Amino acid sequence: MTNLDKPQTKLELLALFGKSRDEELNLAEAELLNKLLISDSRIRGLYRGFAAIESGLEEIAQLQSGKKNATDANMSVIHDTISDIPVTDQPQTSDSASNRRKK
Fold first, then answer.
1. Fewer CB near the last or first residue (10 Å), C or N of the chain?
2. Which residues constitute the domain of residue 26?
3. CA–CA separation, 84 vs 64, rounded Å?
4. How many domains does the chain fold into?
5. Is residue 72 part of a domain?
6. Residues 47-68: what's their mean pLDDT?
7. CA end-to-end span of the chain, whole Å?
């Protein structure tokens, strides 16, 4: 199991996540990331959080560049996406995410 308490481990994971997003993983890195995601729910949670943040930032960039019209609905989706990201390394269950949305 990966030790997520070490900052270096988190940096290495973020580097893998970024390379995955940019489609720059080599075969060994892709296999490693796949193995880690399958074996550790905490890493899956971090990956979902990374993807949600990246998606929100891309949406904001498109709004600011004029490629998309800013609407209340768009901003609400971005806010909800960012609000749902857990701040801990603990795995997030689907129940805890849906409970936060109901509030």
1. C
2. 7-102
3. 23
4. 1
5. yes
6. 83
7. 35
